[in-house]
Amino acid sequence: MIPSSPATRWALVLLVALAAAPVLSALGDQTFYIFLLTRMMILALAAVSLNLILGYGNMPSFGHAGFLGIGAYTVAILSVRAAETQGGWLASAGLQLPLATLTAAIAAIVIGAVSLRTRGVYFIMITLAFGQMLFSLGVAMEPYGGDDGMTLPLYTTLGPADLSAGPVLYYLVWGFLVLALAGSHRLMGSPFGAVIRGAKSNESRLAALGVPVYRYRLAAFAMAGAVCGLAGALLANQGGYVSPALAAWTHSAELVVIVLLGGAGTLFGPLFGALAVIGIEEILSRYTEHWRIIFGPLLILVVLANRGGLSGLFRVRNND
Amino acid sequence: MTLVLEQALNGVQLGVLLFLLAAGLTLVFGIMNFVNLAHGSLYMIGAYFAATFIPWSGSFIVGAVLALAAAAAVGMALEILIFRRLYHRDHMDQVLATFGLILFFNELVLMVWGPAGMSIAVPSWLAGQVTIIPGVPYSAYRLAVLLAGLAAAAFLYVLVSRTRTGMRIRAGASDRQMAEALGVDIRLLFTGIAGLGAALAALAGLLAAPLRSVHAGMGEDILVLAFVIVVIGGIGSIRGAFVAALGVGLIDTVGRAFLPRALDAIFSDSIADAVAPALSTTLIYLTMVVVLAIRPRGLFPAPGV
């Protein structure tokens, strides 16, 4: 059962409101907000996956956006092939989304197998380097635009529709986000999740009990990579565009900001974090194009105040 | 042969620049246990300060010294205002706060100096070529960068291992409380180290500026290389950073120059064309993976980190 706390209630209200948003906005022309909310939910999905390892498992990955890049480029490469060969099936969601997920999962197994041998700051830096390696790979792919990236020649198709930003993409993303949250809840409540969370507080005790901690961590890392690959495939469609910048380490850092701001290791933290970051960005950028000059110091103040993220705000009141 | 030598020198020159950046990073991490993502911003700030002060003063040297002093002041101000409140905190908190600094500085630079970026001209007395060995001309400026970087490395070595200040630094790194109890002003020392690290990063930035361009975000690309070097060398080890920086500089430069040809010779054209760009850009990361697979704590793991 999902525990009933103020954070949970707010999150459920938020999810229901998100489900109703396109219907309400159809009353007026609010396509911009649908576009923005789609992006917010995709980032939340990526953040949910990062939260599995960073939040619950104390694996502070700084290359997570690399998996976004893998998912997005999987879509781009298949779409280019589909456009060249008139092979419609190559652009179908039934092929592209699972393949993006699978490719990211395989990359995550390879990256995780090396990175998880290290701890602490070494882990931060080695994942950072792997992320940057994927970024360089994107830059080196000249046929797909190199440095500048490229516009998708075809959107991913879903039956008669496609995933160009609109209600179809919106509800698909909403569905994946709800599934990911439910999955994250189930997973962390399971014996598997107990190992991941236990390894965060005392790894050597678990190892002494005969639990193969490394394998559990690698499995969690692979799952996180897989879900983030899916988010990348959706993000490529949302923007209609892929570029190496998706995988840049600053983008990984943004995902980390979302998770930490929302409250690492809390179920709905990534959702709150994504809403807050996109919301702040949107509000500040109305006043000045230089909104980062305010957002940066804001981030520092949040850290200095140290409240354990937005979910922590609820916790202070509730004391649980 | 000429080309090989030239590329090797370019590699060492890149390595020396990377060392200046990595030294500050590894110093601040090894001694204060602080992960400073904004180190790349100080590299950028140094270049922008130099691009402002050099035309203003009319002299490369005077402008560079002013830029170093200004960057050191920025580094010390950051330590006093922000860093010292985070030493006892989780590394993720440090990462988050210093990422906020990156956003701030990149935007600040855009607001103050505009989006077009800047450039620094090579000083006229270093504009030509010098002949290192008969028949091998090499850019005088690049050679000067190489020598300046080596001089900075030597200065750092003497400072840390031969002076009283260096002894305090090492004492503060190995046991902060004991050093404090013996009367070392740790707070002042840490502020000084932050200033020194900032000046080293700024030096790298302003030396690189005539070879690359000065633009917002220039620190982020190179910061990752500096991190790779710190990790390969062993976090906290200046000696390790030096060895790793030269290695990474050489591998990157020589790899980009000769790997495509080497692959051409072995494989068919189509395979070589497809693989070479990807392999040469990822070569240093692969090097890091191999090093860490053999030595998970780097080449020269510093004690107590």
Topology (elements, then pairings):
The complex is a heterodimer of chains A (320) and B (305).
Chain A: H1 6-25, H2 31-56, H3 65-85, H4 93-115, H5 120-140, E1 150-151, E2 157-158, E3 161-162, H6 167-189, H7 191-201, H8 203-208, H9 213-239, E4 241-242, H10 249-262, H11 269-287, H12 292-305, H13 309-318
Antiparallel strand pairs in A: 1-4, 2-3
Chain B: H1 2-32, H2 39-57, H3 60-81, H4 91-113, E1 129-133, E2 136-139, H5 140-162, H6 164-174, H7 176-181, H8 186-208, H9 218-233, H10 238-266, H11 269-294
Antiparallel strand pairs in B: 1-2
Helix pairs in contact in B: 1-5, 1-8, 1-9, 1-10, 2-3, 2-4, 2-8, 2-9, 3-8, 5-6, 9-10, 9-11, 10-11
Describe the structure.
The complex is a heterodimer of chains A (320) and B (305). Chain A is mostly helical. Helix content of chain A is 73%, strand content 2%. Chain A has one domain: Orthogonal Bundle (ABC transporter involved in vitamin B12 uptake, BtuC), CATH 1.10.3470. In chain A, strand 2 and strand 3 form a beta hairpin. Chain B is built from eleven helices and two strands, in the order ααααββααααααα. A two-stranded antiparallel ribbon of chain B has the order 1-2. In chain B, a hairpin with a 2-residue loop joins strand 1 and strand 2. In chain B, helix 2 packs parallel to helix 4. Chain B starts with a helix and ends in an 11-residue tail after the last helix. Chains A and B meet through helix 5, helix 10 and helix 12 of A and helix 4, helix 9 and helix 11 of B.
